[in-house]
Amino acid sequence: MDRRQFLVRSSMATAATLLPFNKLFAFKAGTFTDLRRNVGYFTDRGGTIGWLVADDGFVVIDSQYPQTAKGCLEGLQDKTSQALDMLINTHHHGDHTGGNSVFQPVAKTIVAHENVPALMKKANEESESDTELAYPTTTYEDSWEADMGSETVHAKYYGNAHTSGDSVIYFENANVVHMGDLVFNRMNPYTDRPAGASIHNWIKVLAEVEEEYPADAIYIFGHGKPEFGVTGDKSDVAVMRSYLSAMVEHVEQGVEAGMSKEEIIDLEALEGFDNFQYADWWTLSQNLDVVYQEVMER
Ligand SMILES: [Zn+2]
């Protein structure tokens, strides 16, 4: 911790002991929400950060951006004086790994699917970003787990979906699943085809996830429309899967009817899925374009 960070931390700690407004300060540095059995999530800017802060385990999932990662780490260090056992990246995108360098000095290891380091490197070169990268140091092919005493944390790869390196992270005893960007809650997803995304396979991945975890599991989503939030249950995962399936159905019908690509992808909303457009985020048309390319390849 450098001197400036130390001063910020001490002044925050002092203020917190003097005033009963912990929430206010927490809000200023992003928002921490408890879910179940020492597992919760943090939102500020970028992909939702998941965390476990227990007496025998300290885990962070995803790191947003350097600035917001600082706020997250400081808030978590107010909850525990333990060393960070691990940072896990759900995938390589900059809004999930940009803050890795903030956690790296205090993290024993950074865990991700084996495709993540190369995807991070490529994305960084293409974007010419000046963000300091900190790469995963522990990678796995199909699945990985760590026993933390009172909690067991699992990472599992289900195949190409949002990218070609998406992990689903499961806190087994808390029964909380972090989906990374495999679920955009009630909004158009970003589909990174150059990084190996496949909407056809994404549907299968979500179906498998719905089968695999207990019915009462709590899910954390990488992103969500504000009115729906970034957590939910199995039924919210199913909405995402149905939305992707509706995209495929729409494109297949269009192709069968002899419509042009332009005609097929020129659509603002699919029937039954109104209001999935969020700000200037990725559009339905951009996703239909990806589906169209996939259908043409088949
Ligand atoms: Zn992403």
Description:
The protein has 298 residues and is an alpha/beta fold. The chain has a single domain (3-233), classed as 4-Layer Sandwich (Metallo-beta-lactamase, Chain A). Helix content is 37%, strand content 20%. The strands form three sheets. It has a seven-stranded mixed sheet. A six-stranded mixed sheet has the order 8-9-10-11-13-15. Helix 7 packs antiparallel against helix 8 and helix 8 (234-256) packs across helix 10 (284-297). The longest helix is centred in the last third of the chain and has 23 residues, at 234-256. 44% of the residues are buried. Zinc ion (ZN) is lined by residues 91, 93, 162, 181, 190.
Outline of this structure?
This protein has 298 residues and is an alpha/beta fold. It has helices spanning 3-18, 22-28, 66-77, 94-97, 100-103, 116-127, 199-212, 234-256, 261-265, 284-297, and strands at 31-36, 39-43, 49-54, 57-61, 86-88, 110-113, 138-140, 143-147, 152-157, 167-171, 176-178, 184-185, 218-220, 223-224, 231-232. It has a single domain (3-233), classed as 4-Layer Sandwich (Metallo-beta-lactamase, Chain A), CATH 3.60.15.
Global mean pLDDT: 91
- Biggest beta sheet summary: 7 strands, mixed
- CATH top level is Alpha Beta
In the CATH hierarchy, what is the superfamily? Ribonuclease Z/Hydroxyacylglutathione hydrolase-like
Q: CATH architecture, please?
A: 4-Layer Sandwich
Structural class: alpha/beta
| Count of DSSP-assigned helices | 10
Strand content: 15-25%
What is the CATH topology descriptor?
A: Metallo-beta-lactamase, Chain A
Q: Oligomerization state of this entry?
A: single chain
Strand order of the largest sheet: 1-2-3-4-5-6-7
Helix content estimate:
25-40%
Would you report the number of β strands?
Answer: 15
Given as residue ranges, the uncertain stretches (5+ residues, pLDDT < 50) are 1-28
What is the CA-CA span between the terminal residues? 53 Å
Overall geometric form? globular
